[in-house]
Amino acid sequence: MAYVQTVLSIRRFEMKVLMINGSCNENGCTFTALSEVAGVLHDEGIETEIIQLGKGAYKDCIGCGACHKMKNNRCVFDDDIINRIIEKAEQADGFVFGSPVYYAHPSARLLAVLDRVFYAGSRVFAFKPGAAVVSSRRAGTTASLDVINKYFTIARMPVVSSTYWNNVHGSRSEEVTEDKEGLQTMRNLGRNMAWALKCIDNAKKNGLAAPQNESGARTNFIR
Questions:
Q1: Of 14, 18, 200, 205, which has fewest CB within 10 angstroms of its CB?
Q2: Does residue 11 carry a pLDDT above 80?
Q3: CB 170 within 8 A of CB 197
Q4: Pick from 86, 112, 84: nearest CA to 99
């Protein structure tokens, strides 16, 4: 399946943030918000790439577990964008996932993609910072942010915040450009993401390794 990439790159970068636009409107409100974050990251010397999910349909995760049996961080279904995203995530240092708000939740398109990406490839996201961005005409933003943030927290990812909830308002991209506080929030998110990335990079250079987490314990509440 074809998809559109937007890369902001005019010089060699040491770090990269991968973004996903979960809207079927490739140049709408969500893209405008992501672009504001990307602009600041670019100024901070960090490369960005926006993957547009577009209008195509995506299969949901069926929980078959084949990806875990293969132990290659890939989804068994290789006929769409999922494994391409995981491949890009392996080379990325941070992530921003964006979505419009429909019925007080992110787009089903984005959630289908993230379910499969994280179920198969969560290891490639571990200890890399992530942030959620949502756009709406009016309400449902905080509930949508909560849903996306759960992907970060289960994958051992630091969650990057801003100076307000990471959302913009508007029905069209032109209206988002009038949301001064929303755009300010996006720029501050970009600055905070850049700071987090540089802190992690500095820690690695000084020999501070990621924590070794426990595993294996699984509790079934049905007795």
A1: 205
A2: no
A3: no
A4: 112
Place of tokens 């309400």: 139
How far apart are alpha carbons 217 and 179 in whole angstroms?
47
Which of 49, 57, 53 minimizes the C-alpha distance to 19? 49
Closest by Cα among 67, 106, 95 to 83: 67
Residue 136 burial (10 A CB sphere; 0-12, 13-18, 19+): buried
CA 203/CA 209 separation, integer angstroms: 8
Q: Mean of the per-residue pLDDT values for the chain? A: 93
Contact call for residues 40 and 191 (beta carbons, < 8 A)? yes
Distances (CA, A) of 180 to 55, 138, 157, 175, 189: 29, 15, 29, 10, 14
4 pLDDT band, cuts 50/70/90, is very low
Mean pLDDT, rounded, for 117-129: 96
**Which pLDDT score, from 0 to 100, does residue 12 have?**
61
